[in-house]
Amino acid sequence: MGFLDIDNTTKSYGAVEVLHNVDISVDEGEFLVLVGPSGCGKSTLLNMIAGLEDISSGEIRIKDQIMNGVHPSKRNIAMVFQSYALYPNMTVGQNITFGLEMHGTPKPQREKAMKDVASLLQIDQLLDRKPGALSGGQRQRVAMGRALVRNPDVFLFDEPLSNLDAKLRVDMRTEIKKLHQKLGTTIVYVTHDQIEAMTLSTRIAVMYGGYVQQLGTPQEIYDSPANIFVATFMGSPAMNVVPAKVVLKNAKPVALVALHDGSTVSLPFSQDNMTAWDGRDIMLGIRPETITDEDAADRNSSNIARMTNRIVVTEPAGSDTFVTMTFGGKDVIARMRSDADVRAGADFPFAVNMEKAVAFDPETEMRIIP
Amino acid sequence: MSVATQDTAIRTGRVTRTLIYLILILFALFYMLPLYVMAVNSVKPLDEITGGGMMNLPKVFTLEPWAKAWSYAQIGVDPTGLQPYFWNSIKMVVPAVAISTVLGALNGYVLTKWRFRGDTILFGLMLFACFIPFQIVLIPMARMLGLMGMAGSTGGLVLVHVVYGIGFTTLYFRNYYAVFPTELIRAAQIDGAGFFQIFWRILLPSSGPIAVVSIIWQFTNIWNDFLFGASFAGADSQPMTVALNNLVQSSTGVKEYNVHFAGAILAALPTLLVYVVAGRYFVRGLMAGSVKG
Q: Which tens digit of pLDDT belongs to each residue from A305-315?
């Protein structure tokens, strides 16, 4: 039993099932991020935890108390909305204490709780202002203050950073993470931004089409994606997934992948179980940062393969240079050091860290488990 | 070849502009003319009017017609002036406007934030109320008021106007609340606010502009209503409009045009006042919600 249990939960609108048998158990103090493209059901799931949407079947429990049919205000949860949803007619202070007032907390306690939260979030000087007179970042803080002041069991965040500009978003991301480390609260956080998911979470649930595609720590999700969707959704630039053919070379499995001119290169697998796939087609997944120049190749890797391929486009991004090539008939991106001597149109010797490569079954799109 | 002018969408040429203003001023004068005639003649002695020269400024200025219209003109049996009827109107308009506005706001709140099966159909039916001509309901309404024992009373008139006004006020508030962020309602729910707490604490304080629209609209309509007042009011609950009609239509004695003019202006003053005080919110409120939603 976890702290928050989502047990075989589904959601249907009429005959249409939008969430299918979701099973997630969250421990106390965890930071769970629900991530996925729009329409994957992540916000619906969050609203079901909050009690803003009915649960069609299954159970949601907080601290072993069944929450099905329990009113949102009685679940001891707090929610931060995408639009912040600050009450426009109330001051910041009134916004923060409104929930306490509705729960019948006496005024002196409300005042004290408000002061504590305000100093924690450094919004003391804003308490008498109306939300209309605040900047985006300040509103964000007030929205978090309103959630914090209730001292809830579970915090729910619904894409809280997506209305901020890029710089502020990064700052607030750090802020939220600090807050979580300091307070150790249980958080469920919805976002479509995979970088937010990676940086904030202790665990990620990647959702797509109403299914939880994979549930795991950020590292698990990144290194061992369960399927092609997870592999390409998480990470920026996305993981390169190219068609390859498995053959045995000296009784060791290798992947044959087409280069730009139609010739093939053989990349030896680190996983021995790929032997079983001898002669069959697979999809080979390679992260951009595992394709580098010779000097930048991971020295701890036991399996660096080499290949020479033609560069189509280079995109200098300051810290790195992204190089696009045609590989396996697709555009494949490699992440090079910014000082790598790469020019469009030139042939370049690449080093591929095959230890990090993953293979997918082209039929089921599931990862072939080593 | 035509000479290039500096016309833009905002700055038109000097000649065009002069022409436009000239036409606008002419129209304005044309519309002001009746008010001018009323105002000028209401401060003349009667013989000055009957002597012709309706458009002339008064030679002798007198407020006597105003005093007479207000406090001792012969209306009905007693020479009471319009004064008691003015208060009848106030006693009818204030509760009718208040009740229909509050009910419209509640309806709008439910129809947008507490949606239920068939809510759009219900709203459509309520809208229908805006298009029912008054005359159709006269007889059924009279019967209903009789059955409820409210015939000939101010309460009965209030009821009639509330029923008739709800369609409009619901329309206003529903469209206004349709673009009111639902996340705010959800946040308030999580904060533990109930149905009416959300309404009073969150929704109503943000409803200023549309409340003004509803109040102006209802006030003007109910104050100016003649048909319901003439049909359903008793002798001691007749509104201003009916009294004004009785004053002007009296068939005995001399037609005191100056008194009639003064009385007509008196009857129109409250709606003018409401419009002047709250008018600038009117357009703003009408436009609210029209961009999105």
A: 899 999 999 99
Chain A's closest residue to B207, CA to CA, is A89
Judged against a pLDDT cut of 50, whether residue A144 lies above it is answered with yes
Tens digit of each residue's pLDDT (9 = 90 or more) over A199-239: 999 999 999 998 999 999 999 999 999 999 999 999 888 99
Chain B residues contacting A via beta carbons under 8 Å:
181, 183-184, 186-193, 197, 201-202, 205-206
Contact B187 A85 (CB under 8 A): yes
pLDDT at A1: 63
Can you name the CATH fold of A240-360?
OB fold (Dihydrolipoamide Acetyltransferase, E2P) (2.40.50)
Contacts of A160 (CB under 8 A, 6+ apart): A80, A81, A82, A84, A140, A143, A144, A172, A176, A189
Closest by CA to A141, choosing from A115, A172, A170, A167, is A172
Instruction: Locate the domains of chain B by residue range.
Output: 83-287
Cβ neighbors of B89 (< 8 A, separation 6 or more) are B223, B239, B240, B241, B270
User: Which residue is closest to A82 within chain B, CA to CA?
Assistant: B183
Q: Between vectors from CA A369 to CA A196 and to CA A30, what angle results, nearest 5°?
A: 35
Which of A93, A126, A124 is closest to A110 using CA atoms? A93
pLDDT at B289: 46
Kindly report the CATH number that applies to the domain delimited by B83-287: 1.10.3720.10
Provide the H-helix boundaries in chain B.
14-41, 46-50, 64-67, 83-113, 119-128, 134-147, 154-178, 182-190, 195-197, 208-224, 227-232, 240-249, 257-287
Question: Which residue in the set B181, B190, B191 is minimally distant from A83, CB to CB?
Answer: B181
Record the tokens describing residue B130, joined without a space.
């805006």
The Cα B81–Cα B69 span in angstroms is 5
* CA dist., res. A125 & res. A118, Å (int): 9
Cis-peptide, bond into residue A237, ω within 30° of zero = yes
Packed helices A107-121 and A92-102: angle between N→C axes, nearest 10 degrees: 130
Mean pLDDT of B163-178: 90
Separation CA A90–CA B201 (nearest Å): 9
Rounded distance between C-alpha atoms, residue A149 and residue A134, angstroms: 19
Residue B76 confidence (pLDDT) above 80: no
**Is pLDDT above 90 for A164?**
no
C-alpha–C-alpha distance, residues B100 and B106, integer Å: 10
Q: Is a pLDDT exceeding 60 seen at residue B6?
A: no
- At residue B131 the predicted structure's pLDDT band, cuts being 50, 70 and 90, is confident
Tell me what pLDDT residue A322 has: 93
Mean pLDDT of the residues in chain A: 89
Ordered by start, the domain boundaries in chain A are 4-233, 240-360
Residue with tokens 């969408």: B9
Determine the pLDDT at residue B290: 46
Residues A48, A51, A57, A60: is their CA dihedral positive or negative? positive
How many cross-chain Cβ pairs, A to B, lie less than 8 Å apart? Answer: 57
Give the span between the Cα atoms of A291 and A309, in whole angstroms. Answer: 11
Q: Which residues of B touch A102 (CB under 8 A)?
A: 191-193, 197
- Residue B30's pLDDT band, with cuts at 50, 70 and 90, is very high
For residues B74 and B265, the answer to whether their CB atoms sit within 8 Å is no
Q: What kind of architecture, by CATH, is found in domain A4-233?
A: 3-Layer(aba) Sandwich (3.40)
What is the DSSP secondary structure assignment for residue B171, as one 8-state letter?
H
